[in-house]
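Class, study these two lines:
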Amino acid sequence: MKVGFIGLGVMGQSMAGHILEAGHELFVFNRTKSKANNLVEQGATWLDTPKEVAEAAELVITIVGYPKDIEEVYYGETGLFAGAHSGSLFIDMTTSTPSLAVQLVDKGKELNVGVLDAPVTGGDVGAREGRLAVLVGGNEADLEKAKPVIDTFAANVTHFGEHGAGQHAKAVNQIMVAGTMLGLAEMMTYAKTAELPLDKIVKTIGSGAASNRSLDNYGPRIIQDDYTPGFFVKHFVKDLKIALDESKKMELELPMTELAHKLYTQIAEAGHSDEGTQAIVKLWWDGELND
């Protein structure tokens, strides 16, 4: 299949690589062109605009940073919709708002273009190992068309319902991650203060009732003072804001998620927005925690 890929960040690089390795013809665009060099060396074709990617590909995947980036990629004179042809399929894997997902679908219908919202979870490790979970909203027939491509980098693909449902499902995921990350930061701080061996704590706790993916992925990195992003602090702040905004529309109170958003905003404002989400521990370890 002729596949376009836009957004070659921490996860996108690996996802696009898996598509290429599976034998699909790959067309790539990224705001920073140098991030495409490795893929181009492996056989991908660089194109200068999203419009050109849409013109060349049958299916285009986007995974960018923020809703405003999605709007920039999809709309405008050099956007995907400007180059779309009847029967194309666009899949947005960015964590975004359900309302924007519906807007993209409505525009797609005008052009006879399918659009899926399909955010992913699993971080940099899941992307590298090709075992991401994909949370899909939209037409099931479009998903079946996309499955051979998505399966190159995903271990679990779940259809949740109509357009926007994938984004709601991702909000659910981020709510759960928020709780586990705060728990990770506090338990590591407690263990460190009690002068327990952190490597043994991570190994032992990870084999018991408190085991979780955040501990497995980020506990060892914290011990090694490794704050490189598997997922950016700044993007997590955005994701939690989306979850809270949607919860307010449903008249839900999510106090733990509100606390997580407050603390992640605080660590971002302290200069750590481009670090990984495990940097939250610095609020305690560097004495930056305040009321």
Notes: The chain has a mean pLDDT of 96. The CA atoms of residues 220 and 226 lie 8 Å apart. The longest helix spans residues 165-193.
